[in-house]
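Input chain follows. Return structure tokens only.
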Amino acid sequence: MTLINVACSRIQAKLSCARVPIVNARTSHSGRSYRHLPNHPIPRPRTMSYINRGVPGIDQYLPLNEPDVGAAFPKETHPQNAQLPELFKPITIRGVKFNNRIFVSPMCQYSSDNGHATDWHLVHIGGYATRGAGGICMEATAVVPEGRISPQDAGLWTDSQIGPLKRIVAFAHAHGTKIGVQLAHAGRKASTIAPWVRTTTTKTATTAKYTADKEDGGWPDEVYGPSDIPFSEQYPKPKALTEEQMQGLLDAFAKATERCKEIGFDFIEIHGAHGYLLHEFVSPLSNVRTDQYGGSLENRLRFPLQVAERVRAVWDKPLFVRISAADWAEGPEQDPSTGEWKQWGIEQSKIYVGELKKLGVDLIDCSSGGNWVQQKFTLGPGYQVPYAEALKKAHPGLPIGAVGMITEPEQAESYLREGKADVVFLAREFIRRPHWPIIAAEKLGAAVKPANQYERAFLEVIIPARR
């Protein structure tokens, strides 16, 4: 028996007990298998329309998906969804419903044209919007030009950057996918060159240079941080921000947020992780200021909290904050004899998150590291999840996102089922397997909607189970 015959037999067995018509399955209502699977959909009942309906209210034709891509089919038509896996239970945050709990992490693409999104971003993000992600967070997007990580990073400091992003958001919405953006400032890690320019993946061509100099399109003399401490000798030496400049950055975050409203994003994430500006402020390793923004924990938190407060004041949709919960430096977080905070860690993070919650932040995207060049950690599956779990225990009513080498559906499901997090954020695994949500549904026994155009590849996911 050929593999196609086996597939037909399995599908036929399922269809024989189905009580609803499955439009795109590859067997007939009589149970006869079609010999050529891709080209013979089941005939529709005469009461059903034969019109390939489009998404209403948009400026082009795109086929309408019902339900949304990535949403679970109703249990009334698909009995296997009577007990949905946690990953596929919708979550509503500040009135915005996400079809599932599998989110695309922000991933720098180093592919913007003076901060403007290009067709690369449309295809890159559009691919996830058509493959079942519950939410997509677009990459770190600088609120000022000198806040970019590299000269090719995304930006939202001028109105001309609205249009390209609006196109991407409209495409995601046409498939029922929620989409947001990560507003950012790179701080002392700004004006660097793109990673594949610095080092090829095969390590056959490597340079010790990290800084993007003026001839590289960079701005090494206009790099800023809380203090004048560089990330490493290979990075630009930053200037310490003045309080006046900090007020200007607060205005820039607010203006970028206003542009997000015009674009139509469903949520905003503030980037407070990975050694960029806001992480630099909270850590005593990178912030040695002696004014109201340095020294004590209260002072170190002041500017990041002001950023969250300004964004919240003009944004009435979900607001996320990504934090690094630890610096991964050697030694303890706090000196046990003096009580002095030696580096950033989970205990301070719990306090920080509590203050963010008071300001109306709706979700914490919990990562770690990136602020100490000599950081040491053990890499492995779910290696950052314990930090998310600790924050969830400290703040049980606040949604928490887990990240860090989450690759397998059963693994991700366990984190949600055990209460360690409310959503998972995936990055590299989405690059490797863009259809990860649909693959996860198949592995976990859920019936979830693929895009119409891709249904033929996921019959096991869309066919109702036996009653």
